[in-house]
Amino acid sequence: MALHPALAAVRAGVRRSLVDLDPGATVLVACSGGADSLALLAAAVFEGHKAALRIVGVTVDHGLQEGSSERAVAVSDQMRALGVDESAVATVSVDAPGMGPEAAAREARYGVLGELAERFGAEVVLLGHTLDDQAETVLLGLARGSGARSLAGMRPGFDRFRRPLLGVSRSDTETACMVEGIEWWTDPHNADPRFTRSRVRTTVLPVLEQELGPGVAEALARTADLLREDAEALDHLAAHQLQRLRTKDGLPIAELAALDAALRHRVIRRAAIDTGAIDSELTRSHVVSVAAMALAAEGGRQIQLPGHVTAYRAAGTLRFRRTDAD
Questions:
Q1: Which pLDDT does position 68 carry in this prediction?
Q2: Ordered DSSP codes for 84-145
Q3: pLDDT of res. 63
Q4: Distances 109 to 25, 55, 206, 266 between C-alpha atoms, Å
Q5: CATH classification for the domain delimited by 5-220, as one of 3.40.605.10, 3.40.50.620, 3.60.110.10, 2.160.10.10
Q6: pLDDT in tens, 162-195
Q7: What does the pLDDT look like over 86-131, one tens digit per residue?
Q8: How far apart are CA 40 and CA 128, in angstroms?
Q9: Angle CA(61)–CA(62)–CA(63) in degrees, nearest 5?
Q10: Contacts of 278 (CB under 8 A, 6+ apart)
Q11: What would the DSSP string read from start to end of 19-49?
Q12: Per-residue pLDDT, 5
C-alpha cells in the first residue's frame, strides 16, 4: 500500500534531519500537542527507531493558560503512547522585561530545551515549524521593515536545533496526523487576534491567497531561502573584512569608507556586538547612525548603543568602548 503523500513528506523531512547521527544517539523532540509537533514526533519515532536512535519527547508548560499543567501531562502521555523512549514535562516562567509575551515565551522555551538537551545528552533538538510558519515570519519581517536577516526567516538549523518541516505545509502535518489516527490539540492563542502572528495566520495570509491566488505561502518561504543564501554570504564576507580591518584601536575609517555599504554596515554591527552591544536591540538605525558619524567630515560625536556601548571617532578610527552605567 502506497504511503500517503502528506505522511511521506513529513517523514522525509525528519529522515533528512537525522541522517548524520550515529546509532545510539539521543534526539529531543519538542512537542506542544498540536498537529505540527505531533506529526514531527510520530515521524521521529518511526525514522529514529529505524536508525537505532533514542527519541525523547519534551513538552513545555509556559503556564500562560488555565489548565496548562494538565494539558502538559496529557501531551506527555500521548508522546509515550506514540512510542518515545522517554518523555518529559518542563515548566518555565515567562518573564522577560522589555519583551512581548510571544518573544518571552520563545526565549524561555529555547532556554529550557537547551538545558534538557544537556541533561539527556541529546545531540539534536527537533522543532516543528512548518512552511506556513516560515511564510508568517517573512511577512512579519516585511511589515516591520526588517533587513535581509529577518526576511530570510527561520534557519533550518542552528546550534543543536533543527527544523525538519520547513518545507512541509501545515495542511500536510494535519493530514499526516489524520492518516495515523493522531488527535491533536488546537492552542486558542493561535487564533487570538491580540497576537500579531495570529492575525497574520488567520487574516493576512488568507486574504493574500484569495487576492493573489494560491501559492503565496510557498513563494514567501522560497523568498526566505533565497535571502538566507545572500545574507549568509554577506555575513561571511563581513566577518573576513572585520578580521582584516580591526586593530587594537578600532576600525580605520578610510578603509571602512572603501567598503560597499552592505559590508560596511555589517562590519560595524559585528564590531559593536563584539564590544557588548545587544544583538536583538541593535537596530539598523543605530548602525546607520554610527556609519554616518564615522564617515562625517567632522568628529566629536558619540553614539550610545544598547548594552552600554559607546561608539565614537578618534585619530582616524571608529572605536567602541564599554559605557559606564549608573
A1: 75
A2: -SEEEEEE-----TTS-HHHHHHHHHHHHHHHHHHHHTEEEEE----HHHHHHHHHHHHHTT
A3: 62
A4: 23, 19, 29, 29
A5: 3.40.50.620
A6: 999 999 999 999 999 999 999 998 877 777 787 8
A7: 999 987 666 655 556 666 777 778 888 999 999 999 999 999 999 9
A8: 6
A9: 90
A10: 306, 307
A11: TTPPTT-EEEEE--SSHHHHHHHHHHHHHHH
A12: 95
Query: What nine digits make up the cell of 65?
Result: 493558560
Indicate the angle between helix axes 170-179 and 5-18, nearest 10 degrees.
Answer: 110
Q: Mention the CATH class of domain 246-322.
A: alpha beta
Query: Is residue 276 within 8 Å of 282, Cβ to Cβ?
Result: no
pLDDT the model gives residue 95: 65
Domain layout of the chain by residue ranges: 5-220, 246-322
Closest CA to 64 of 32, 107, 101: 101
Query: What are the residues whose beta carbons fall under 8 Å from the beta carbon of 135, sequence distance 6 or more?
Result: 205, 216, 217, 218, 220, 221
Only one residue has cell 555599504, namely 261
Query: In b/e form, how buried is each residue of 283-303, taking b as 16+ CB within 10 angstroms?
Result: eeebbebbbebbeeeeeeeeb
Q: Other CB atoms closer than 10 Å to residue 180's CB: what's the count?
A: 16
pLDDT at 142: 82
Using DSSP bridges, classify how beta strands 251-252 and 157-158 pair: parallel, antiparallel or unpaired.
unpaired
Backbone angles phi, psi at 317, to 5 degrees: -130, 150
Return the closest-CA partner of residue 51 out of 30, 79, 80, 21.
21
The three cell numbers of residue 6 are: 502528506
pLDDT tens-digit readout, 270-312: 999 999 988 777 888 899 999 999 998 776 688 999 889 999 9
pTM: 0.80
Grid coordinates of 36: 505540527
CA angle at residue 62 from 36 to 47, to 5 degrees? 30
- Is residue 19 very low, low, confident or very high in pLDDT (cuts 50, 70, 90)? very high
The mean predicted confidence, pLDDT, of the chain is 89
Q: How many CA atoms lie within 13 A of 244 on its CB side?
A: 12
